[in-house]
Amino acid sequence: MAEQSSKSLSGLLGGLAQIGYYQSSGITEQMLKDELYPELPQQDFKIQLEKMGGILRSIASADMDFNQLEAFLTAQTKKQKGITLEQAEVFTKFWKAHKVKIRESLINQSKWENCLRNLSWRVDLKSQSRYLDQLNTPVAIVELELGKSDQESEFLCLELDETKVNQLLKKLTEIEESIGTLSYTN
Fold it and tell me: For residues 165 and 171, what is the distance between their CA atoms, to the nearest angstrom?
């Protein structure tokens, strides 16, 4: 009976991950109940779903490492109306298998705008120009690939002369210094 209970919980966690983190439209809460807990009354299933879903959300939102997970699950087993040791083991196995994928999903869900996918650059010499003094001057060609994970990329190509490159480097240095003052350095 305990093995069946562990399999059902494992399936429930997988289903909750599909619904909440992997955006799978083919899985519903009712389907999980029908497949995994057919004899359980609807109200009891709702309680089980909320309890296990809440624990999974806590683990995922904290992006727990395995030491944190162990401490958290141990605390959950000691709570009144908490989880059993067998259920804690199922959570541990589940988290080992899904941690990276759930983390990536949460990161992608938190992006509002395009992100930088790739950057390439080269330095060329101008071979044509309206002005003779600009011939054979170095020019930096920067290509940025921008996009969201679920969309096609957009490409932005920039041509920068020496002055613009120096301005860009100065701005990047300012950004780096700002980040350095805001971050915790030990």
Answer: 10
Average pLDDT score over residue span 11-35: 89
Residues 7 and 95 in one domain: yes
Q: Using CA atoms, how far apart are residues 19 and 7, in angstroms rounded to an integer? A: 18
Residue reference for tokens 């401490």:
71
Question: What pTM value is reported for the model?
Answer: 0.62
126-179 tens-digit pLDDT: 777 677 666 778 889 999 998 876 678 899 999 998 899 999 999 999 999 988
Range of 156's domain? Answer: 115-182
Closest CA to 142 of 185, 172, 113, 112: 172
Domain count, the chain: 2
Among 54, 79, 109, the domain boundary falls at 109
Same domain, 62 and 128: no
Sign of the alpha-carbon dihedral angle for 109, 114, 116, 117 = positive
Tokens of 186: 């030990």
Same domain, 32 and 77: yes
